[in-house]
Amino acid sequence: EGFDRTDLAAYAAERLGSRPVGPTLLTGVRQTNARGARLGPIEAVVTAGLSNPAVLPVEASDDPRSATAAVADSGVEPGTVNVLVGSSEPLTDGGLAGLLGTIVEAKTATLLELAGCTGTTSDAVVVGCPAGAGGAAFAGSATEIGNAARVCVRDAVAAALDARYGDDPPPAPRDAPYGIVTSGSATVFEP
Questions:
Q1: 31 by DSSP, 3-state: which?
Q2: Other Cβ atoms within 10 Å of 95 Cβ, number
Q3: Are the CB atoms for 72 and 118 separated by under 8 Å?
């Protein structure tokens, strides 16, 4: 809502002065509020702002602030949660995909515990590792890499929220001016 740019590569080039090489994460959060965490082969850097939280109720919702409903323009600059994670250990393509899932799980669990939402309407996660043969094929929570990723993401998200909000916590998800509540019900079937 309120951001009409769809060619994000062109937008990033305008902001940076040239087309970026590699991933570019956009945020309304001051970079001075970024926080990082390291454990074993993993390093995570996070920025976190929650003025546009996304809430996913377990029961179907008909909340008027559904993802398709317009929200009021309050002049608040939306935030986002950006997570950048690197592994010093090589991973296979499957291991890298597994690490991405582990990271998103850790971000979501941390935000649910600390802020009552699963994320924001604009979150992004980037994960990388060195190329090389013999990389780890698995990076779930029971692996050394997955456990380290969970700890780093949890600690970096918590520290980034503290850096951004300090003693003045973000609004509750249902009170946030740009928040959405997922609505609707899917047709469930047996495959």
A1: helix
A2: 22
A3: no
Residue 166 or 67, more confident = 166
Residue 132 phi/psi, 5-degree rounding, is: 165, 155
Helices and strands, number each (H, E), in the chain: 3, 7
The rounded distance, in Å, linking the Cα atoms of 88 and 17 is 30
Residue 70 reports pLDDT greater than 80: no
Q: How far apart are CA 191 and CA 187, in angstroms?
A: 12
Q: Is 159 left (phi over 0), alpha (psi -120 to 50) or beta?
A: alpha
Stated pTM of the model: 0.84
Judge contact between 110 and 155, C-beta under 8 A. no
Tokens of 68: 């398709």
Beta bridge partners of 38: 43
Which residue type occupies 78? P
